[in-house]
Design brief:
heterodimer, A: about 170 residues, alpha/beta, five-stranded mixed beta sheet, 3 helices, B: about 400 residues, three-stranded antiparallel beta sheet, 17 helices, about 50% helix, about 10% strand, NADH dehydrogenase (ubiquinone) activity (chain A), NAD (chain A), transport (chain A), NADH-quinone oxidoreductase subunit C (chain A)
């Protein structure tokens, strides 16, 4: 099968989901778009099961915290081994109530990826069979990758940006 | 079940099951992670995997380090083939910065990466043999890993956590001794690998222990997001080097070995064949280097390439660029980039979001061991304990890559 192009893909997805997909861009050739949180499983299963595009492989799930927008973005990387292209799907959640449907219904491999995302960002994946912390200890009170938790002792002064003219 | 306490046998004696703690520090796990198994005699009824014993918060640390200081963090992911991680990281940043790398540097990198792939596969395959009781083969081939480390030592000064290369190229050219060692390795290793294969490939005991153990279907492997030799052993010819060539892999002629049943024996065969292919790639790279202009070991990008110390002390421009790079004043575009390389265990991906600051806004490692390992407890159900041990060796779980 010939390599499908991103334009074909955008047309196909636009036909199916219309306004539900937005923020379409192509950084470094990797098609990126966002969707609403209640649409995520629909979009993922369309991508996975549509015979034309066939994104059968879940490469990765992770999240990014944007404190100034009060958002947490959950990022999916999918790969179509048939047509050899990747897509990136983002879902923006409010940081106070990060809930999202679990992708474990589509891929078994989503299990630990979502546990990792939960562990570090506190995103609660609804329908996940076993949503526990995975790398951190069970009684850790915080989700450490959120930006409000500093890495080092905040009282350290030798690494402040002002000393570097920034 | 708490995270850091062993589970004691307090089961109901009626069901006759025994709880077994495999790990966290069990010699057969080859790394620090725990499996709490419910045993019915020698057979595993169910298992729970606990990981995270060497979690070092690399993704958090990376948000506070300039790009060039993240390379040593990647060393410690899959520490059996750290040069691949180093190169993968450098290529991610180069992709972000749109740096064109000269062909000669690409070929030098290919040599380094393929040597580390061989080192990684040597570890895995000899350990499988070791866990089936074949100590001879382990000792036989393992010394070639030492020879590979000597080559790395010649190239970069370090052996295990190599920190090879810079953003934009390599920190120094290969010297004559390095090429001599590589050529010596290319002459001697195939002989040893052939001997290794003749000791195991048709060995009745080895085949009895590995064939049909932990078979995985292609559908299951895809559903669990397996990559690398494990996926290829199930019959799917996915290899990042071919599907999305990086570092000029498209210039090389090599094959992707695949298996059929995805069992331990197939994984062993796939890894062995990959070592042959790696030797082939290195030979081609040495040949291609002859027609490239000598002495080029980095791209001409002074804004991003950290200059050598000697230049910094003697040359005004180098000093300025050194200062700017170390202080993090490089103009990196605000963008996000995903770059994958074929690591020893599968697709090693770097998802980098840059906001124009000194360090990444977010860096996520897609670690193949972490993703490959999640099927382990499920696979072990109904398996004999001794088979589960061999299965774990053949998954080649590296604790550093598991936990990040």
């Amino acid at each position: 099968m010939a390599k499908a192009t991103n334009t074909e893909l955008v047309d196909l997805l636009g036909e199916k989901f219309g306004e539900q997909l937005f923020d379409v861009s192509e950084p470094y050739g990797l098609l990126t778009f966002s969707t609403n949180k209640d649409k995520v499983i629909d979009v993922l299963s369309f991508l996975k099961e549509n015979g034309k595009i066939n994104f059968n492989f879940l490469t990765d799930i992770t999240a990014v915290h944007y404190p100034e927008k009060e958002k947490i973005a959950v990022v999916y990387h999918l790969h179509s081994m048939v047509s050899g292209i990747r897509v990136r799907l983002k879902v923006f959640l409010h940081e106070n109530d990060p809930r999202l449907a679990s992708a474990t219904v589509l891929w078994n491999g989503a299990n630990w990826m979502e546990r990792e995302t939960y562990d570090f960002f506190g995103v609660k994946f609804e329908g996940h069979p076993d949503l526990r912390r995975i790398l951190n200890v069970d009684d850790l009170p915080v989700h450490p990758m959120l930006k409000q938790y500093p890495l080092e002792d905040p009282n350290r002064v030798d690494k402040k940006d002002e000393y570097f003219g920034r | 079940m708490t995270h850091n306490q062993p589970v004691y046998t307090d089961n109901d004696p009626q069901d006759g099951l025994v709880t077994l703690n495999l790990g966290p520090t069990h010699p057969a796990t080859h790394g620090v992670f725990q499996n709490i198994l419910q045993m019915d005699g020698e057979r595993i009824v169910s298992g729970v995997s606990t990981i995270g014993y060497i979690h070092r918060a690399f993704e958090k640390i990376a948000e506070h380090r300039p790009f060039y200081q993240i390379t040593p963090l990647t060393d410690r992911l899959n520490y059996c083939s750290s040069p691949i991680n180093n190169m993968g990281w450098h290529m991610t940043v180069e992709k972000l910065l749109n740096i064109q790398i000269p062909k000669r540097v690409d070929y030098l990198r290919v040599i380094i990466m393929e040597l580390s792939r061989i080192a990684d596969h040597i570890i895995c395959n000899t350990i499988i043999a070791q866990d089936t009781g074949a100590t001879t083969t382990f000792l036989y081939l393992f010394q070639y890993r030492e020879h590979i480390y000597e080559i790395f030592e010649e190239i970069c000064g370090a052996r295990l956590t190599t920190n090879i290369g810079r953003i934009g190229g390599l920190e120094r050219d290969f010297n004559e001794v390095a090429f001599a060692k590589i050529n010596k390795f290319l002459k001697e290793f195939p002989v040893a690998l052939k001997e290794f294969e003749s000791l195991l490939n048709r060995n009745r005991i080895f085949i009895d222990r590995t064939k049909g153990v932990a078979e995985v279907t292609a559908e299951n492997a895809l559903s669990y997001s397996w990559t690398g030799p494990l996926l290829r052993a199930t019959g799917i010819d996915y290899d990042v080097r071919v599907s999305e060539p990086y570092s000029s892999y498209q210039d090389f002629d090599f094959e992707i070995p695949v298996g059929t049943s995805g069992d331990v024996f197939d994984r062993y065969l796939v890894r062995n064949e990959e070592m042959w292919q790696s030797v082939r790639i290195i030979e081609q790279a040495i040949e291609k280097l002859k027609s490239e202009p000598k002495g080029i070991f980095h791209a001409d990008v002074p804004d991003f390439y950290l200059p050598g110390k000697e230049e910094v002390y003697n040359n005004m421009e180098a000093l300025i660029y050194h200062f700017k790079i170390v202080m993090g004043e490089i103009d990196a575009p605000k963008a996000e980039v995903y770059h994958a390389v074929e690591g020893g265990n599968g697709e090693l991906g770097f998802y980098l979001i840059n906001d124009g600051g000194r360090s990444p806004y977010r860096l996520h490692f897609r670690r193949p061991s972490f993703i490959n390992y999640q099927m382990y407890a499920k696979m072990s159900e109904g398996m004999l304990l001794s088979d589960a041990i061999i299965n774990m060796s053949s998954l080649n779980i590296i604790a550093g890559e598991l936990d990040a």
